[in-house]
Input
Amino acid sequence: AEITDLEPEEITLNSSLVEDLGIDELHSFEIVMTIEEEYLNNELLDDEKFEACITVEDILTLVNNHIDAIA
Output
């Protein structure tokens, strides 16, 4: 919500990153950096897998899978 200027309740799991949220390449970089710092203890996400994410749910799945893999 901070990156998109939308209210959190406007964002759903099915929200398209580009079409619904207006996420561009710079925003994507900010999202990846925040996830790595805040949730992954500075472990790096696979850029190609992140770029394949289309929805908010795709990002959550990627992060959960990454956490499972490093646990």
